[in-house]
Amino acid sequence: MLNLTVATDPEAISGGENIPVNKVLYISRGRKRNQIMVHTFDKIFYMTGTLKYWETFLNNSGFKFLNVDRGKTLNVEKVKIVNGIFKDAYFESEIAKLSQRCPIAYHRYNEVIKELGIMNPNIIFTGAATT
User: Fold this and answer.
1) CATH topology assigned to domain 3-126
2) Cα separation, 119 vs 32, whole angstroms
3) Which residues are within 8 A (CB) of 120 and not within 5 positions of it... i.e. 6 or more apart?
4) Which residues, including other chains, have CB under 8 Å from residue 59's CB and lie 6 or more apart?
5) Which residues pair with 82 in a beta bridge?
6) Contact indicator for 73, 26 with CB cutoff of 8 Å
7) Do residues 44 and 52 make contact, with C-beta atoms less than 8 angstroms apart?
8) 82 near 88, Cβ under 8 Å?
9) Residue 126 near residue 84 (C-beta atoms within 8 A)
10) Using a CB cutoff of 8 Å and minimum separation of 24, what contacts does 75-80 make?
11) Please, which pLDDT band fits residue 131 given cuts at 50, 70 and 90?
12) Is the per-residue pLDDT at 22 higher than 80?
């Protein structure tokens, strides 16, 4: 199992820890240049590098990550539901008010849902299927 070494805060003042890649829901660009935010159910962690670098690294390490927006890359294996009305990916089978979600770019939505359906046929697509 591959682990990522991540910082627990944006400045790495609190140190870091190792988290398994299979706990990652999605990764996104951070507020600073070459900063990546790693989103899990429990917390957001931080790494350095570019989104493209980490997407390539994770995919070449046997995982399925898909860029769904200029600044977001999903862990396809974690997606349970895609809402076609709001263009959001969810990571739980039951969507609640506080459910984690990752927005999908409107202009890439049709392309993204095709790829998601191929990469993970267990995903449930709800709402409007196309833009």
Assistant:
1) OB fold (Dihydrolipoamide Acetyltransferase, E2P) (2.40.50)
2) 31
3) 64, 76, 77, 79
4) 65
5) 89, 125
6) yes
7) no
8) yes
9) yes
10) 75/21, 75/22, 75/24, 75/25, 75/26, 76/116, 76/119, 76/120, 77/22, 77/120, 78/24, 78/25, 78/26, 79/116, 79/120, 79/123, 80/122, 80/123, 80/124
11) very low
12) yes
pLDDT tens digits, 64-75 = 999 999 999 999
Partners of residue 29 on adjacent β-strands: 36
User: What span, in angstroms and rounded, lies between the C-alpha atoms of 81 and 87?
Assistant: 10
For residue 57, report the phi and psi dihedrals to the nearest 5 degrees: -60, -50
- Here the tokens at position 101 are 């979600």
CA 24/CA 44 separation, integer angstroms: 10
User: How far is Cα 24 from Cα 5, in angstroms, rounded to an integer?
Assistant: 12
Residue ranges per structural domain of the chain = 3-126
pLDDT of residue 129: 55
DSSP state of 105: -
DSSP 8-state code for residue 78: G
Identity at 95, one-letter amino acid code: I
